[in-house]
């Protein structure tokens, strides 16, 4: 046998008294197979290339049998990106049984331009809009278009004047990075809901406590609409950490530790990703949450697996 490279002082103490000294965790409650499964929604981004278009449609076809409540398509800045959103939404309407929700933003467009897009969606039978402010392309401080909707709350009110859309808005369990204060951000969320939105979808988060505490704060502020958790199954930790720094989602040390050493090991990384996301949604479900929004990144497998663990089964 090779000689030990670890000193005996660093080895775990293999005695029952040591094992049994700490707290007991008896496990998450089992899913109730007789209860209705949670309502899911899936978010996609519009593809830039033909290869990405093929990937997106493979993703949509894989997730379609899970009968999500709606699927949403993000909206970018600039004409061609926006056109791709319209085309993707139109194809979902024409070729699937899914209910689309089109994201729409205020940034870099006049009210007239935004209203025209909303009318186009209404005429095409799209009844659900995810109404957002958006960010300045390439970064930098946000400045409202001189003739535009300044904030998402203004957009929600504008959309309601055009048609009786179902409207979802964004919420930030860890506070939007540009908010004057957590209280001001919560007031803003309330304004968006009071203006006619029926639900909020949160930016993704990794610590369940952060989200649950946010729900307490929402309720205390008089908000009763569902604040649906946005779930991002992380399969590329380095990328997720970089993006999180920009959108104000904190990355806990335990998450980094979970992915440590998997940089060159895609298979282990995927399994870790599934375990992390599964634990998160099961904990949320145990806390009574019965709606989930998945940031699929146009990849179906993790979302499909996690939906399965939540008791969601294909309908056909
Ligand atoms: C579920 C979800 C989906 C998203 N989809 C997209 C997408 O498709 N395309 C895209 O470009 N981005 C998207 N985003 C990102 C989003 O556009 C950015 O996070 C953006 O910075 C804020 O958008 P918002 O709708 O939350 O803005 P708002 O609700 O308008 O708030 C923006 C900031 O301004 C503050 N604020 C609001 N009103 C006022 C006021 N009157 N005076 C002063 N401050 C005020 C708020 O507190 C907040 O800090 C999405 C985010 C989420 C959570």
Structure described in brief:
By secondary structure, the chain is an alpha/beta fold. It contains eleven helices and nine strands.
Overview of the structural elements:
This protein has 316 residues and is an alpha/beta fold. It has a single domain (36-309), classed as TIM Barrel. The chain is 42% helix and 13% strand. The protein has eleven helices and nine strands. The chain has helices spanning 16-19, 50-63, 79-95, 111-123, 152-162, 182-194, 208-220, 237-247, 253-259, 266-286, 301-309; strands spanning 39-44, 70-73, 100-105, 128-132, 166-171, 199-202, 227-228, 230-231, 291-295. The protein has a nine-stranded parallel β-sheet. Helix 2 (50-63) links the parallel strand 1 (39-44) and strand 2. Helix 10 (266-286) packs parallel to helix 11. The longest helix has 21 residues, at 266-286. The termini are far apart. The mean pLDDT is 94. The protein binds flavin-adenine dinucleotide (FAD). Flavin-adenine dinucleotide is lined by residues 74-75, 103, 105, 130, 132-135, 151-153, 170, 176, 178-179, 184-185, 188, 192, 201, 203, 230.
SS field, number of helical segments: 11
Q: In one word, what is the shape?
A: globular
CATH class: Alpha Beta
Q: Which fold name is given in CATH as the topology?
A: TIM Barrel
Derived structural class:
alpha/beta
How many β-strand stretches?
9
Q: Count up the domains.
A: 1
Largest sheet: 9 strands, parallel
Order of helices and strands: HEHEHEHEHEHEHEEHHHEH
Strand content: 5-15%
- Terminal CA distance reads 56 Å
Mean pLDDT metric: 94
Helix content: 40-55%
Low-confidence stretches: none
Question: What is bound: which ligands?
Answer: flavin-adenine dinucleotide
Strand order of the largest sheet: 7-6-5-4-3-2-1-9-8
Q: What Rg do the Cα atoms give? A: 22 Å
CATH architecture call = Alpha-Beta Barrel
